[in-house]
Structure formats: C-alpha cells, structure tokens
Amino acid sequence: MQTIEQVLHLMTQRADAWEKTGDQRCTFLRCYNLMSSNMALAIHEGQFHDPSWISTLMLRFAEYYFEALGHYECQAEHTSAVWRHAHNATVQTKLHVLQNLLLGVNAHINYDLPLSLYDCLHEEWATLSAAQKQLRQDDHEKVNQIIASTIDAVQDTVVEPQSPIMAVVDRVMGRMDEWLLSQLISSWRNEVWNVAIRLLDAGDSTEREQIRQEQEQRVIDRAEGLIAAF
To answer: Which residue, among 40, 33, 68, has the nearest Cα to 54 in the 3D structure?
Structure first.
C-alpha cells in the first residue's frame, strides 16, 4: 500500500496529464486531490479519534479509484461497471463541468466507499463495543466537515475556470451553491455508511454480493440521472 504523500503525488500527476490533453476526467481528480490533501492535513492535526484507521481507509479508498482506472485503461473484462459507465460518459460525451465532477463523486463515494469501509471494518467489527463502533462512525462523519470546508476551493480552482458562468452563480447565490453541493455529498456519505453496515451484517458472501450488485445498479441509475439532468 502506498503512503498518503505518494497517492497525492499520483493524483496530481494524472490530473496534470489529463488537463494537458483536454481529458474531462481531470475535473473530478482535481477535486479529489484537494479533498484528500485536506484530509491528510486533518489527520496530521489530530482531528480524528483514530488517525491510523482513517489513514488506512483513505488509502484503501484511493486504491479502489486507481485500480478501477487501471482496469478501464487496459479494457479489462473485470472493470467496475460503475467506473466503466462514468469514464465512458466523461470521455465520450461533452458534459458540463458539474456533470464531470458529480459523475466522479457519485462513482467514488456511492460505490467505492462502502466497499472500502467494509474492507477496513470487517475483521474488527464483531469485536468492537457499541462505543467503539460509534467512534468509527464519528470519524466517517468528520470527513463531511472536511469536504464542506473544501467546496469553496473546488468552486474557485476547478469549476469556475472551466465554466465562467459559475462565477456569476457564485456571486448571486453567495455560499448557497457550495452549501447545496456539500449537503448532497454528505447525504450520499450518510447513505453509504448504512450500505457498509448492511455488508458487515450480511450472513454470507452471497448476500454481500447481492448488496454490492444492488448498490452498483443504484449508482449507475444515479449517474444516468446526472447525465440527463443538464
């Protein structure tokens, strides 16, 4: 497993390369990089109950993104259906900057995150007390605050340079547009925690796979809605 610093460097390298070639996927990755950088700072500042656990979760989360990207670029048969759909839509279609951003956020948070949470919780979950489980959830929810604090930077450095009209929207709405995006992402992350709990509570691998497939379809349906909404 790579270090957080190595992952951040990889994000920057890939986003720079995509931006140079006009690849719209740089939009989400720039956002992801900003939020991950703020996560790393929060870990360093001791803002989490268990910085070691949240660091492991952060790295596993990033692994899902880059593994899916590698599979997609190799046209592997086992490429995640969620990410195949998101990459195809972004690469093959001229989308609004917000669509590019939200397609990536939808795929990564709503699909990769519950799997990452399961991976980082399943070995210990049965042995944790109710209080310890709550601390894990509290650390998960703390990330919502970090995301909210990053939205302004995403708006200023990622969204507005690609869509100047969004600067007008920002001036008219004040912080309302950032608040709406933050609330959307937070609501998705709250849903994701519940999906992860379902995976942890599943009786066997067959039931877990059914839950995964249901979530996969839910995320693809949501992506279709994002594409059709503009």
So the answer is: 40
